[in-house]
């Protein structure tokens, strides 16, 4: 048993023109594949019982740098692919209990997006912006550096269960947007999978359970 690179849940060109085909190929087939290979190498998985990725992530802050970086690289990218969908295949805005929670916390979806955009734009260097649910059941927005993930206990400013994530490493946008990270962030909302995010919220995050990654 070892961890495997998941297929994209859509075609490589499905997020055009917001995210280009070449970036998706490189990002999934080269970058994400590399994190999976290095995670397997770092874990040296030979035992019949492979630990779950969420268990590895939870304790990654006390693990080796290789495990922390590559377990994060695998989980974060897997959730990132699921955070997106081709335009027109999902509700263009949050719905249901997730929308109620967003409105309760920030007053409007637009204000939540403004806070999220700031977190994503102001992350210095490589990292991620996250929408998730903290231990008190409240929605939070945080950014993390490198491959860190709010599921890694004690590593981030807030421990929480992620619902939605945006990759702001340069490899995620540089071919198309070059140094225009704010434009990439702004246009990313066009391909956010709000139906999937609502499911992540209802079935997992609102119950304090990490969204499982196959
Ligand atoms: Mn990436």
Q: Can you offer a commentary on this structure?
A:
The protein is mainly α and 214 residues long. It has eight helices and three strands. The protein has a three-stranded antiparallel sheet. A hairpin with a 4-residue loop joins strand 1 and strand 2. The model has no long low-confidence stretch (mean pLDDT 96). Bound molecules: manganese (III) ion. The site of manganese (III) ion has 7 residues, from helix 1.
Question: How much strand?
Answer: 5-15%
Large-scale geometry = globular
Q: How many helical stretches?
A: 8
**What ranges have pLDDT less than 50 throughout 5 or more consecutive residues?**
none
Structural class category: mainly alpha
How would a textbook summarize the main sheet? 3 strands, antiparallel
Looking across the biggest beta sheet, what order are the strands in? 2-1-3
Number of E-state strands: 3
What small-molecule ligands were found?
manganese (III) ion
**Terminal Cα separation, in Å?**
13 Å
Series of H and E elements = HHHHHEEEHHH
Determine the fraction of residues in helical runs and give it as a percent range: 40-55%
Overall pLDDT confidence: 96
Gyration radius (Cα, Å) is 16 Å
């Amino acid at each position: 048993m070892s961890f495997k690179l998941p297929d994209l849940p859509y075609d490589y060109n499905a997020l055009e023109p917001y995210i280009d085909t070449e970036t998706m190929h490189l990002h999934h087939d080269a970058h994400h594949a590399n994190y999976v290979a290095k995670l397997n190498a770092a874990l040296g998985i030979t035992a019949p019982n492979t630990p779950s990725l969420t268990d590895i992530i939870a304790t990654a802050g006390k693990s080796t740098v290789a495990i922390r970086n590559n377990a994060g690289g695998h989980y974060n990218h897997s959730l990132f692919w699921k955070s997106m969908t081709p335009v027109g295949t999902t509700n263009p805005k949050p719905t249901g209990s997730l929308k109620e929670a967003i409105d309760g916390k920030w007053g409007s979806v637009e204000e939540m997006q403004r806070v999220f955009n700031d977190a994503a734009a102001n992350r210095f260097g490589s990292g991620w912006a996250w929408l998730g649910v903290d231990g008190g059941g409240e929605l939070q927005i945080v950014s993390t550096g490198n491959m860190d993930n709010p599921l890694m206990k004690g590593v981030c400013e807030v421990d929480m269960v992620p619902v939605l994530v945006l990759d702001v490493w340069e490899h995620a946008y540089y071919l198309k947007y070059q140094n225009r990270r704010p434009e990439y962030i702004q246009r990313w909302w066009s391909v956010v999978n709000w139906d999937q995010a609502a499911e992540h919220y209802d079935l997992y995050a609102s119950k304090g359970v990490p969204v499982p990654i196959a």
